[in-house]
Amino acid sequence: MNVIETNNLTKYYGKSKGIENVNFTVKEGEIFGFIGPNGAGKSTTIRTLLGLIFPTSGSATIFGKDCIEKGHEVRRDIGYLPAEIFFYDKMKVRDLLNYSASFFEGEYSQRIEMLAKMMELDLNRKIEDLSYGNKKKVGIVQGLLHSPKLIMLDEPTGGLDPLMQKKFFELIREENQKGATIFFSSHILSEVQHLCDRVAIIKDGSIIQVEDISTLQKNTYKKIMIKGENLLKETFKFQGVTNLTMEEHTLKFFFKGDINRIKDIIQPYKIADLLIEDPTLEEIFMHYYE
């Protein structure tokens, strides 16, 4: 069963394009990544799916129900964490979360306590006294307190320190193992690679491709910088090397292939510095899709 289906989903803000002819499906029980640089249309897609803004054309369904016509029904089973968090500043965290819980049937006080403990969130502090990272924790608890069937996360890790990010990912995996479907929007490729089953790539408001994360990982290349004496640019002109540049004694390039080949080539040289890292998502877009 598909939890989310879009059919040529399009949203224009006047003459400005938000998204255009967006098509993808999210299967029940999967962790689905939605990646693209800032401004690519990720938040517009999510807000349209949630019925917070209306599409210009096209349609989408969640749980088999139209997102607009049946929006009030489908939102009962959705947990949403927006990229930007805004709350009533004068309220205590506990009061805010209890107020949020009142919109759903059932008793959620124990669930709130459990989530707050896991996220190291002080329920007795006022919202206005919280750091940006702690406000993000409030948003996480708020989005998960009713054990939603579908969890939609829009750039969820902003403001969280690395340790808290780890705890957050563990929490999301636990919810997924309990049966929740996860829609994870991010511009950070490493987050998506470690968490998701499949991924849709969006750029300039359009879906470029949808594929398994394992396929994406196999196709990922490394960004390499080598600094040393007597380096020859021509030595590194072989299959798998692209965007090769040299300034003074520093070579920079992208490489896709067996990294041991690079190690063998640089062995005769006197190397002052060597950096091998994953490219940013923006660099991947520029490399593959210009």
* CATH fold category name of the largest domain: Rossmann fold
> CATH homologous superfamily name of the largest domain?
P-loop containing nucleotide triphosphate hydrolases
Question: Which strand-content bin applies to the residues?
Answer: 25-35%
CATH architecture tag of the largest domain:
3-Layer(aba) Sandwich
User: Largest sheet, if any?
Assistant: 6 strands, mixed
Spatial separation of the terminal alpha carbons: 35 Å
Shape: globular
User: What is the typical, i.e. mean, pLDDT?
Assistant: 90
> What order do the SSEs take from the amino end to the carboxyl end, as H and E?
EEEEHEEHEHHHEHEHEEHEEEHEH
Q: Mind telling me the CATH class of the largest domain? A: Alpha Beta
Rounded Rg: 22 Å
Low-confidence stretches: none
Q: What is the overall number of helices?
A: 10
Summarize the amount of helix as a percent range: 25-40%
Helix/strand structural class: alpha/beta
